[in-house]
Amino acid sequence: MSNAPAAKPQTAITPTRQDEFPEWYQQVIKASDMAENSEVRGCMVIKPWGYGIWENIQRQLDKMFKDTGHSNAYFPLLIPLSYLAKEAAHVEGFAKECAVVTHHRLEAVKQEDGSMKMIPTGELAEPYVIRPTSETIIGAAFARWVESYRDLPLLINQWANVMRWEMRPRIFLRTAEFLWQEGHTAHETKEEALAETAQMLTVYETFARDHLALPVITGEKSERERFPGAESTLCIEAMVQDRKAIQAGTSHFLGQNFSTASGIQFTGRSGAREHAWTTSWGVSTRLIGTLIMAHSDDDGLVLPPRVATQQIMILPVTPKEDSKQAVLDACDALARELRALTYAGEPIRAHVDRRDLPGGTRNWEWIKKGVPIRIEIGPRDLEKGSVAVSRRDKGLKEKEFIATADFVSKAAATLEEIQAGLLERATVFRDANMIRITDKAQFEAFFTPKNPDKPEIHGGFAVVDWAGSSDDEDELQKQLGVTIRCLPFGDEWKQPGTCFLTGQPSTQRVIFAKAY
RNA sequence: CGGGGCGUAGCUCAGCUUGGUAGAGCGCUUGCUUUGGGAGCAAGAAGUCGUCAGUUCGAAUCUGGCCGCCCCGACCA
């Protein structure tokens, strides 16, 4: 007998979240088969299980955009170099991360060793930038399209890929190429544009909460975190399980900066030429990274049902050859029945995994892939007319035997229960790690890792009274690696107080945190 | 772009110090046995050892150039 401490329970993912969060994140992606790094530096291959989540996000968000009056369009991947220079702050913000296309032809040249080498020729008179975002090229289009106040508002969205040459990529969180949507709108008045900016933030907040099960804080970015070229940047900010913040979506009020730069002018009601007021807003595949870090556990991915690629996975248990066909038929019949039902306004996504694999292996695969409900059907279930139901949000060993008809009738409700449970759990976690802090010493202690070997384990969201400057914020980032995540909306955040850093009277509470 | 590390089978890596013709585990394929919880046994496929050059009778191993990747900084949805 040894006196060694009891072995940790075995988990499907190593290391655990507690041991090494960043590595855990990578392993979850690998184990769930969502995506992989590609041979192109900084770019990812999104595999079907991951892309399915993106398709669900796209479809559901797109409906919300349409419901608020927006239309989709598509603009070029390549942006004339000169366009980017039109707005001063915008150039500065993106100049350092642009991929530039300088040639339009390749010439095959035979090498001495017989191999071919492709040499770019046909240099372009004006190089193109691969869009890091499309304000400038969409601005140029808007300038053509808008003539009269009667053309406004112009409410456009684009689903696209963009490229920002990142130094340190991380799958889904920060890749050189990523998928997103970018909304671009032009309005007659400042008030309308501001209302649009606020409205789209609410759309994002609703989507994050109801579809991704992410409780987010809505607010405004501080000056130093603002989008290059924006008058104000609104955001939804989420907390993930290492208690860091992640910006999950942004909505920008661009004032007349881009309409001036791009010449988006119209004849107003009084007959005068006026510059339009514009907005832009976006969410990206980063949402998937946020989902992973917010909900998953040491056994792999945990998916909110609404965006899960598959919601119900049916696993035939076929120990005997003579009952095999009957079991498979029953599984197919159940899948058909489930797909005819709806959950959250869409057909239930149910699939039968017919692969001939050992039961345990196959079961673990779906645990790691985070499918919300697993159903097992074997010969004994057939006799009893029941199914064995396992839920990803419950213990792995928990299995409930339910009459098939009862399961079917409750399927949508069960999915909603899982969805609500994930939101509840994430909200409790977030609230438990969002702490009111009133002095500098407390603030430093909150953000100083207790274990220097694991600097990722630190405080969370610090709620402080703030009257500091951008320089003060810079200083705190240097010292502790924290930034103002946002100046949250809501009366409870607009309390008078005393700035925790400067001691000056303050009118606003802000959230400081380490961020992705 | 600074500082560190690493390129050997699909993956994780051993072998390199002391040069002698390629290894393990996992995964994959096939067969048998299994199957209500991540299976067992057996057989098999799979690598111009990142690349180019040099030293040598002989290089994964020694030397140099180049390329790529990872980690830590600066930047970032």
* Estimated radius of gyration: 26 Å
Q: What is the CATH third-level topology name of the largest domain?
A: BirA Bifunctional Protein, domain 2
How many discrete domains? Answer: 3
Low-confidence stretches: 1-7
Mean pLDDT: 90
User: How far is the first residue's CA from the last residue's CA?
Assistant: 46 Å
How would you sum up this structure, described in words?
This protein is an alpha+beta fold and 516 residues long. It has three domains: 21-99 and 134-295, 2-Layer Sandwich (BirA Bifunctional Protein, domain 2), CATH 3.30.930.10; 305-421, Anticodon-binding domain (Rossmann fold); 434-513, Translation Initiation Factor IF3 (2-Layer Sandwich), CATH 3.30.110.30. Helix content is 34%, strand content 28%. The chain contains 14 helices and 27 strands. The strands form seven sheets. The protein has an eleven-stranded mixed β-sheet, with helices on both faces. A five-stranded mixed β-sheet has the order 18-15-19-20-21, sandwiched between helices. A three-stranded antiparallel β-sheet has the order 4-6-5. Strand 22, helix 13 (440-447) and strand 23 (461-466) form a beta-alpha-beta unit. Helix 2 packs across helix 6 (190-210). The structure holds one RNA strand of 77 nucleotides.
